[in-house]
Model the fold of this input.
Amino acid sequence: MSSTLIQGTFVCTPTIGSLQILSDHLIAVSSTTGLITHFAPITSSSSIELLQSSPSPPIVLPPGTFLLPNFCDLHIHAPQFLYQGTGLHLPLMQWLDEYAYKAEERLDADAGLARRVYTRLATRLVEKGTGTVLLFGTIKEETNLILAEIMQKAGLRAFVGKLSMDISSRPTYTEPSAAASLYSASSFITQCQHLTSSLPLHRRLVAPVLTPRFVPTCSDELLSGLAALSVSQSLVIQSHMSESRDEVTWVRDLRGAEDIEVFEKHGLLTPRTIQAHCTFLSIPNLTHLSTLGTAVAHCPLSNAYFSDKPFPLREALIQGVKVGLGTDVAGGYDLDIMSSMRYAVAVSRMREGTRALTVHADGPRVPAVGASAENLSINWQEALYLATQGGAHALGLPPGSGNFEIGTPFDAQQIQLLDPETRQGIGALDFFDLETGAEGNILLTLEMVEKWWCVGDDRNRVGMWVQGNNLFEKAR
Done:
């Protein structure tokens, strides 16, 4: 079995809060399956044996360059990419009527426009280092099949959700009944799976997911039907839960219950479920979510615009909730998971500042019921874990995905920090105190990786692989 060999420095977060810089390592990727078949120091006996038996020399990464697992984006509204970066001045429920539903309806009515928007979206995702993505689509089957086809062609690992919604505040943008919605969801699943059925298993990168938009747009009959469909076909479920004050109030008025109660009642909170936002969940709610195995897509930027309240990230992690990051385009204006990581840290630090001021302003105070006594901030290394392995775990990818482990898909991005000849930083990066080894080679340090995390951008991304397939490579 032929393999691609790559020698160089690898950066990963094996556990949340820990970061490894693995210099002079050798990785082997099966050309047949795209899986990692070897990963060890270059000086190990197994690496030496592999190099000696290989018909081709390894690809050697230049100094100042490293491989990092791809990013996972757990929450994007693909049709809303049409108006990314506009229309963020309204409350959530008004914004849906004024922008989101109209954009989705436009794409459902214009296949050519949908193809242009989705093709550009795929290009941007690759540029941003996002190799795995969980997508909300529209209500029309054909438009979602265009989305799935384009993501597969781009080589991205994409979970594509046809919206299910038999209730809508926009009369022209809804499905006629719960029965019609369930029939359409089932039909889309079959057609989406057929798109890749002739490909080898490791090249079937696109999969359908069930997508009740959120409680206000779904009848009880529809929610129960989707749960049954999920069980019968072991499908991933995605939705929004407890996102904003107006949404939470609407659900209470309509259903006389909380979001989490409605979803659980209808069997939609499972280990295969990813719920976006969850900002209004209490600590007991989070504990229960952890018990159920349901994951959260944390979208800190869009939360700042629409949620009225930040997500209790530290508390969720303490309770063992599976958490990954999402951009929530277009509720979030930036498609880059780098921004989601930075905002996640910034929001958590502000939450910790508020907690500390409350505790120490006039002497110790009794914390509110359910409040955490823990430090609420997260650091950049924890955010990097959420963007990589956290997202992979939430999606149920093979154990070890989002890391460099033997038997997992080779999903990686190549990051170049500086020019090895001039030793000048690339893009926004500047380095003045480079560390060198005994032979004068540049050593990658934790501080260099941190600087990239804070101010790096697309100019530093020079290669990307999904399931061993090289999607692009910039010449330097």
Observations:
- The first helix runs from residue 45 to 53.
- The mean pLDDT is 94.
- Residues 80 and 330 are 5 Å apart (CA to CA).
